[in-house]
Amino acid sequence: MDVLMALSDSIAVLHEGKLIADGPPEAISKNQEVQTAYFGGGSSHG
Amino acid sequence: MAEPLLQVEGIHTHIGKHHILQGVSFEVYAGEVTVLLGRNGAGKTTTLRSVMGLLPPSQGRILFENRAIHHMKPFDIARLGIGFVPEDRGLFNLLTVEENFRVAMLQEAKKSQERLEFILDVFPDLKKFWKAKAGVLSGGQKQMLAIARPLVNEKHPFAH
Questions:
Q1: In the sheet that B67-68 helps form, which strands lie side by side, from edge to edge?
Q2: When you count CB atoms within 10 A of the terminal residue's CB, does the N or C end of chain B come out lower?
Q3: Where are the domains of chain B?
């Protein structure tokens, strides 16, 4: 994940066919919805 | 800010009865690395296949250099300069490394030759196995060939 953050200029995050975030890596890494969807935890994690 | 190279605007894509992409939008700018991130089944592959015309969207638009491409055939999209590295690499295992490059060349020979020289400097293993069948390469070498092949057209690679 660190490599991906270092190499990318922008990241678009998909979850269940929908875009949930789009922006520079530093913003994406702090995005709560991304953390829930991608790393698990929270009510939306299925 | 410069104009985006690729604009994906609210695309919906179905596979059979399954509604896979549900309004996906993002932009890609020249010279930048844009990552599609998501868990298994999130829609990353479907997004790339939609852009390439392999799974045309039922709604929304895809623009490349301000030109609508979402109704175009994959081979016409490729000729615009969008290179695609499929997940399974899509190599012709019974053709040589050289022949795999030759079938991918979409531009004049001189330009392709210049690009080839650059690529073989970056991936010297491919030069070493130039006349070998792609099927006998190691996994890493096959991946090099899959990534290098669309670069021969000097345009806009798209990796998976």
A1: B18-28, B6-15, B59-64, B67-68
A2: N
A3: 6-79, 97-151
